[in-house]
């Protein structure tokens, strides 16, 4: 986890994110309101997130709880989001490129669905991040929002899952506003 003792320097600032150097690597730091104190279960989930390592899931580096805000630290995806690529017209979107993007998204979702995390919940073009090699990594930040801030949900119904029985399903409305 990133702490006040980690060597870091500010590089670029957006509204909710800052680009920083952490041990000579670029990372993105996001600020979160402290809505609650983290319990043992929350810390276990954060450790579980740190252990996740897949080419199609953006790497969660850690969470700093030293200051007035929680700071989550993520691997920096140099090319931005899929939305940025589509709107910017910076890449030739031929059939092979589109197939590769779809494959990357499916592989990332498959990994998430088979993991204890089980679902993404906020998949859209702005949460599909592109690495320098034009490789999609799903943004896993919504898992952290669930842990430290929570989500507003709305019951959707029940779904029969083959081999697992009936599962309640919910729409994720958005993060709880403080």
TrEMBL record:
Pfam families: PK_Tyr_Ser-Thr (PF07714)
SUPFAM superfamilies linked: Protein kinase-like (PK-like) (SSF56112)
Keywords assigned by UniProt, alphabetized: cGMP biosynthesis, Lyase, Nucleotide-binding
One annotated Gene Ontology cellular component of this protein: plasma membrane
GO biological process: receptor guanylyl cyclase signaling pathway
Domain (Protein kinase) ranges: 1-178
EC main group: lyase
Catalyzed chemical reaction(s): GTP = 3',5'-cyclic GMP + diphosphate
PANTHER family: GUANYLYL CYCLASE, RECEPTOR-TYPE GUANYLATE CYCLASE GCY-7
Protein's UniProt name: guanylate cyclase
